[in-house]
Design a protein that fits this description.
This protein is of the alpha+beta class. It has helices at 20-50, 53-79, 93-122, 129-151, 158-187, 192-219, 229-237, 270-284, 296-300, and strands at 10-12, 242-254, 257-266, 288-294, 311-312. Helix content is 63%, strand content 11%. The two termini are 22 Å apart.
Length: 315
């Protein structure tokens, strides 16, 4: 039987091993950058010649795509730097900062486009519909090709997901420009160009909300949505020797990298530690844990400040 004084802490962590998709993240992002850059030039030229705000806005969003994806490449490189004594979690949060900046970049460009569109609605200029239609169709094909590159890895890395989101919203912009070009070609109704730009910008704002929300949640060290802390507590309490569970904290260091710390009250240290870590890894994929096991007599002899409410096992 081991008490708190002989086994005060147990720290359990697996060495980080990048998945196949995470390892391929820089390559797929680089391919998407190449495709986006070529067709950004085509859309800027087409928008300038046709005098279409919808095309120019789509090209401008492609430019933010490139900037965001370059930022994503940098943060992926930074996140893979080794840990140090002062940076004990490494640089994984760089991925979250990059994703947050990508989301905010979408918000900024959306605001500019909406403002410019409102000005254009008041006095819509003449726009060459056929050229808008053809160039926007080419842009849509380019976006779909970039999305194909990013599709496989988008659920494995938040930076790839951010890049995918940029290209997805850009695809919506291409669809909007195609609609605008078709309407202008057939009816010459000029307000359609700024109207579809406003709709496209609104979709950009809505689609980027989840990315910004997730990034802020990680930075605020909130418990990830897919992990239920009540369920975690309940499973720890199911360990026969555990009498109480308190000070439970679950947070994400980065996307897919969870960490946990908790105090358990038990007379059995080693067995409880092993069982607890096995449960956390098997059921919740949490491998970075700091678990403190305290003997009941030791715990009762001190007062606990700043503790979350204690949950006791009912017998």
């Amino acid at each position: 039987m081991s008490d708190h004084s002989t086994h005060p802490h147990h720290h359990h962590e697996h060495n980080p091993i990048h998945s196949h998709f995470e390892g391929q993240a820089p390559q797929v992002i680089a391919k998407a950058i190449g495709v986006t850059f070529v067709f950004m030039i085509i859309e800027f030229a087409g928008g300038w010649i046709s005098n279409s705000l919808a095309l120019v806005s789509d090209a401008a969003h492609m430019l933010t795509d490139i900037g965001a994806m370059l930022l994503n490449l940098f943060t992926i490189w930074l996140a893979r730097r080794p840990t140090t004594l002062t940076m004990s979690f490494g640089y994984h949060r760089a991925e979250i900062l990059g994703a947050l900046l990508s989301g905010l970049l979408i918000w900024m460009i959306s605001g500019v486009l909406i403002y410019e569109s409102i000005l254009r609605i008041q006095n819509p200029p003449e726009v060459k519909g056929p050229l808008v239609f053809v160039v926007a169709t080419i842009g849509l094909m380019a976006n779909l090709l970039s999305m194909k590159f990013l599709q496989a890895a988008k659920n494995e890395n938040i930076n790839v997901r951010a890049a995918y989101l940029h290209v997805l919203t850009d695809s919506l912009g291409s669809v909007a420009a195609i609609i605008a070009g078709g309407v202008l070609w057939l009816t010459h109704w000029r307000p359609i160009d700024p109207i579809v730009t406003i709709l496209f910008s609104g979709l950009m704002l809505v689609s980027s909300w989840s990315l910004v929300k997730e990034s802020v949640g990680v930075l605020m060290e909130s418990t990830p949505n897919h992990v239920n802390p009540v369920e975690v507590k309940g499973m720890l309490l199911e360990i026969h020797e555990v009498q109480e569970v308190h000070d439970l904290h679950i947070w994400a260091v980065s996307s897919g990298k969870l960490a946990l710390s908790v105090h358990l009250i038990s007379e059995q240290s080693e067995r409880v530690l092993n069982l607890a870590n096995r449960i956390l890894e098997d059921h919740f994929k949490i491998v970075h844990t700091t678990i403190q096991v305290e003997h009941p007599h030791h715990f009762q002899s001190k007062r606990c400040y700043n503790c979350v409410p204690i949950e006791m096992k009912r017998t």
